[in-house]
Amino acid sequence: MIEPGEKGFWIVAGRALWVLALGLVAASWWAAATYAPVEAQMGPVQKIVYVHVPSAIVTLIAFGLTFAASIAYLTTKQWRWDAVAAASCELGMVFATVVLVSGPLWARSAWNTWWTWEPRLTTFLILWILYAGYHVVRSSLRSVSRRTVSSVLGIVLFVNLPIVWKSVEWWRGSLHPRNVTMTGEMRETLLLSMAAWIVFFAAAMVSRLRLEWSREAAAERA
Predict the structure, then answer these.
(1) Residue 3 lies in a domain
(2) Contact 18, 204 (CB under 8 A)
């Protein structure tokens, strides 16, 4: 159960995080539009990198948090860890979808095709499908075993994350470069964008967890 004082803290923390997140996102968009130079070969479409790459990083962070929280739930059996795992996985799916949408937009200009079954794209699509399955399984269970089954899935599915991360190095034929050369302004803008989306994820997590806690409180009262 969430104590009144604790609930008040998370409300204030959530509002502060949202203000910071929206400010950073606005700053990152301004930097991408005006501060970062236009890439010589690909042109303005290259600026999708400032959404695509940060979203991919946040996706891996979110699913990694699902993995850690799932272990914590199986160890402690505290419902809060299950709530963290489920909320993080849900937000990870949102960012993963952004990656899958922004990637083809970039690929159309860079590779003259919307999609190609190269290693990074293929493994990331598999990642998206697997974690979508996590939500399907979780929503289909109504028994007390739902949290345990979800936690086991959250641990097992994590195996695909290092495969996605290392796919460029492990398989030939990857169109994603191993090393990228960027100017100082590009690098600074990318780092700002990554910080913005990470804070945005943190703010969304707090809001999502407040919803989970409200549901748990309602269930306890019932």
Answers:
(1) no
(2) no
